[in-house]
Each structure stands twice: as C-alpha cells, then as structure tokens.
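Side project, low priority. Logging it here so it doesn't get lost.
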Amino acid sequence: MLAASTLLTTNSVDKLTTRRISELADVNIATLYQFFPNKEAIIFALYQRWLNEMDDVFDRMEMKQSKQMGWRKLFIKIFDALNQVQTELIVRDRLLKAMGMNEDLRQLDLDHSIVLSKRLAKLMANQESHLSECELQEHGTLIFHFERALVTPLANAKGDDQEVLYKKGRDFLLEMISLAFR
C-alpha cells in the first residue's frame, strides 16, 4: 500500500503497475498477487483507506459536537480535519480520477458519497438547522461534492497558493452551510 501510494505521488494511475509496486515494495510479484489480484484491487484498497480516514473524522466530530460549539466552529473543524488526513492530496486526486476504472470503484465512490452526505445532513440537523430532512440531505450532497471538487485544485497548487485556495474553498463551504441556518 505504501509503495502504491508513493508511486501515485509521482505518476498517474495509468502508469501505476503491479510490477512497479512490487519492485518498490521489494516484494515478489507473486506475493503481491496473493493479496491484490490486480492494480484495481490496490487502488480499491487505497481508496478504502482514504474513505476510512474520512469516516474517522466524522466519527470524532460527531462525538465532540455540541450545540454550544455552534455550526460554524464544528464545520471548520471538520473541513480542517478532512484536509489533514494521512492520504496525501496528490494521491487523493489520483484516486478520484481512478474511480471510473471499473464498476466496483464507481459503486464504492457512490455509496460513500451518499453516506457522507447523510452524515453532513445529520450534523446540520443536530445544530438545529431550519431545513427539512430532505433539504438537508440535498444540502449535504452539494457540500460533499464541492469539498471533493477542491481536491484537484489543491493538489495542483503549491505553497502559499495551496493555503489561500484551501481557506477560500473552506469559506465558500461555510457560506453554503450558513444557508441551512438563516
């Protein structure tokens, strides 16, 4: 997994091969195939690891949230934590681009987007949003997809530009969320 992730920091998904992964990991390719039958299985596992990191962020925030914290502070903490997960930005970007490779990856991505959208909606509801459950679900979906859309520009930005872009993106997300509390 580390070797595949490392290769993705310098190469696109189409240049990722099981042979290159096994060489970098210093593992016989036959051994690699015992755990991962193909490149897509490795990508699936990397993507699943990133999804688990995001789930962990939501688990922590759901436990910490309180109405006294206020929705703005809660969502700033969520977005900052999502931005700081262990999976590197460039790897996240390349994994997102790989999601169209096969049906299993597309389905995993779709299933997870629904789960996280619902979690966003639940967090907004717990902070006493005035929107209906259906409206919150739609709002959560929009927020999820916008946050996801920030990955590529952030991965391509460097230094101070990356920080400025992140803060502007986060501020826009907070503005979108504020509509649920007006």
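Brief comment: The chain has a mean pLDDT of 93.
Revisit when time allows.
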